[in-house]
Amino acid sequence: MIHPVEALWCHDCETLELEVKLQAQLIELAGNLLPAVYGDLRQRGIIPTLDGNVLHFRARDSSAVVRLHVASSDAPANLTQLTDGEWLGLVDKVGEVIYYTAALPDWGELPMGELPETLATAGLKVASGMKFGTRYRVYRTDEMHATWLLHLLRDSDTWLDIVRAVRVAHGVRKSLVASDGKRCLALEWVKP
User: Fold this and answer.
1) Tell me: domain 51-192, CATH 3.40.1350.10, correct?
2) What 3 state SS string does 102-139 have?
3) Mind listing the pLDDT tens digit for each residue in 105-141?
4) Can you give the residue ranges of every domain in the chain?
5) Cα dist. 5→34, 39, 69, 70, 74 in Å?
6) Cα 155 to chain centroid, rounded
7) Is 167 helix (H, G, I), strand (E, B) or coil?
8) 43-53: pLDDT as tens digits
């Protein structure tokens, strides 16, 4: 049996003809985010598999299996769905897709407690990140320039706010680390 997302993609490619009523039912089942990301990956020559709202595919550079979550760029930024090594595909209102990898920042073991205090306890230097549009800059003790920009997520932050922060961090050769207060993930733009 063909997955609704695959059926919609085949219909868009004109390899499968769907009646209007069936097409509407499939769109209702699949939503508009998964088909956008699925179609983008297929256009890149990647054939993903679907597991609920998560896509899986093999990375071109390492052949590792990638687990890809999909969200709207206007959705609240929420780290709970992401774990180390997973990808995030964000879809904007016109269907454009951008991809990010999530990784644990290379900070070593952090003690329990509030950020940024735990970073200082772990031997990292913390300074204001205001000139980069984020809360903090984080340095290793022997560095002259910060390696990371730390963004503390607020309830009002959307994924589009994170897109902006990652773009700024990339432009100044730093990694953006987003934190929800419980965990931290370094987010980096990636091309599948």
Assistant:
1) yes
2) EECCCCCCCCCCCCCHHHHHCCEEEEECHHHCCCEEEE
3) 998 777 788 888 899 888 899 999 999 999 999 999 8
4) 51-192
5) 7, 9, 15, 13, 22
6) 17
7) helix
8) 888 889 888 77
